[in-house]
């Protein structure tokens, strides 16, 4: 509605204005710059960063961007360029990744994904369908066991994998196939591995597989990157009173990389969201007026998707004595919040959890906060194992996209994001005063 149609709104009395100003002044720190938040997320999820994995320098480009932001904020560094390098081994799929079956070309990420340990194969293979009667009928089982599968693509449904555990002979036979095509009705959820199998293994959406197809043409190229140099990115704001004690904010910036040349995992929620929140907190605490009594460190980890490798490396090679960390806050998957947030270790550190509940008032809060016990599900865990008190926050609700090509920036609601940043600020402020 045009403002000219709304008389009254401009006839504000001075008294009302005065009250309004007082009210605004009573509000907590200014709301988040959500335009900047969206910009950061769009940089981190852009195709130029190749899914923040270990091909086409995706991880290094992401690290360079984070280090540039740290530099602009004037964060102190322990190591040159804020980088803490470490090696990892990871199986990658950055080249050919095509499946032709019948008249169809299956799309990576949409119709199929490689199993993280999949090996390579280029060429045409005859298809063999696994007959589940082999489980119960010895004659059919023997027939199957006598086949030569070494130049075949074996197709079977994912549900049989549990039954195979009881039949090692059949399981071993299935593993002989040059390629395994595993049909699934579930969502395609990817991950990364540090080994490579000699054979191709693909997870294919059952609906995308043409029934009774007799041949399949594969172009699958897997590269096992051995001792690949990646890096954590870390910096800190020195404390005003007790600079050798630390509050630490962490978030992993790595993700699942690419599927062939055209498809990549943007990882908007996982974990461009947490990396962006870490940068927002760095923006805040780097301001001279907002400095805390304790030093505040910011660590963006690599290698999380490959098994918490960056945080494990840091814990083994810490920039500060681990005993000097008063509290650690890890942010991973914080892009939603329709159903509140979960605090891993909330049941372990009850005092800090109570403080959080206290700060989470209905006016400025993030909705329901739920506590969990210990869980080895993100980068706080290696610290917890070493006795460093730590919380891991993630948001609940919103998108179902997770470890797939649909985890994109636009649909990410960021429902609790500004309030969560505010809560984190207040939480760290209070910890700096009370511990
Ligand atoms: Zn993940």
UniProtKB/TrEMBL annotation:
<dbReference type="InterPro" id="IPR045175">
    <property type="entry name" value="M28_fam"/>
</dbReference>
<feature type="signal peptide">
    <location>
        <begin position="1"/>
        <end position="31"/>
    </location>
</feature>
<protein>
    <submittedName>
        <fullName>M28 family peptidase</fullName>
    </submittedName>
</protein>
<dbReference type="InterPro" id="IPR007484">
    <property type="entry name" value="Peptidase_M28"/>
</dbReference>
<keyword id="KW-0732">Signal</keyword>
<feature type="domain" description="Peptidase M28">
    <location>
        <begin position="232"/>
        <end position="426"/>
    </location>
</feature>
<dbReference type="Pfam" id="PF04389">
    <property type="entry name" value="Peptidase_M28"/>
</dbReference>
């Amino acid at each position: 509605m045009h403002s000219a149609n709304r008389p009254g709104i401009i006839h504000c009395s001075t008294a009302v204005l005065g009250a309004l100003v007082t009210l605004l002044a009573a509000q907590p720190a200014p709301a988040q710059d959500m335009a900047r938040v969206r910009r950061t997320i769009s940089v981190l999820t852009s195709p130029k960063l190749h899914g923040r994995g270990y091909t086409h320098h995706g991880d290094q480009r992401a690290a360079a961007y984070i280090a540039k932001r740290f530099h602009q904020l004037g964060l102190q560094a322990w190591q040159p360029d804020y980088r803490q390098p470490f090696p990892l081994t990871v199986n990658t799929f950055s080249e050919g990744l095509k499946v032709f079956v019948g008249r169809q070309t299956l799309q990576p990420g949409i119709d199929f994904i490689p199993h993280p340990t999949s090996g390579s194969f280029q060429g045409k293979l005859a298809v063999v369908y696994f007959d589940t009667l082999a489980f119960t009928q010895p004659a059919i089982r023997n027939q199957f066991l006598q086949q030569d599968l070494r130049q075949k693509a074996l197709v079977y449904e994912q549900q049989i994998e549990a039954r195979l555990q009881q039949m090692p002979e059949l399981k071993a036979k299935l593993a002989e196939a040059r390629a395994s095509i595993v049909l699934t009705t579930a969502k395609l959820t990817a991950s990364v591995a540090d080994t490579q199998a000699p054979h191709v293994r693909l997870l294919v959406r059952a609906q995308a597989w043409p029934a009774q197809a007799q041949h399949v043409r594969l172009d699958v190229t897997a590269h096992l990157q051995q001792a690949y140099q990646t890096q954590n990115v870390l910096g800190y704001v020195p404390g005003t009173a007790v600079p050798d004690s630390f509050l630490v904010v962490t978030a992993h910036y790595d993700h699942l990389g690419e599927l062939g040349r055209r498809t990549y995992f943007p990882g908007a929620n996982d974990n461009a969201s947490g990396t962006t929140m870490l940068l927002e907190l760095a923006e805040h605490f780097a301001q001279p007026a907002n400095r805390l009594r304790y030093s505040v460190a910011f660590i963006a980890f690599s290698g999380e998707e490959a098994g918490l490798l960056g945080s494990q490396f840091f814990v083994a090679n810490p920039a500060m004595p681990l005993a000097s960390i008063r509290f650690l806050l890890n942010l991973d998957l914080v892009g939603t919040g329709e159903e509140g947030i979960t605090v891993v270790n909330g049941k372990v550190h009850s005092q800090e959890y109570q403080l959080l509940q206290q700060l989470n008032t209905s006016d400025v809060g993030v909705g329901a906060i739920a506590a969990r016990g210990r869980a080895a599900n993100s980068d706080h865990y290696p610290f917890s194992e070493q006795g460093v008190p730590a919380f891991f926050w993630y948001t609940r609700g919103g998108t179902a996209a997770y470890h797939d090509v649909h985890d994109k920036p636009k649909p990410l609601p960021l429902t609790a994001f500004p309030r969560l940043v505010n809560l984190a600020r207040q939480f760290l402020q209070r910890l700096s005063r009370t511990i």
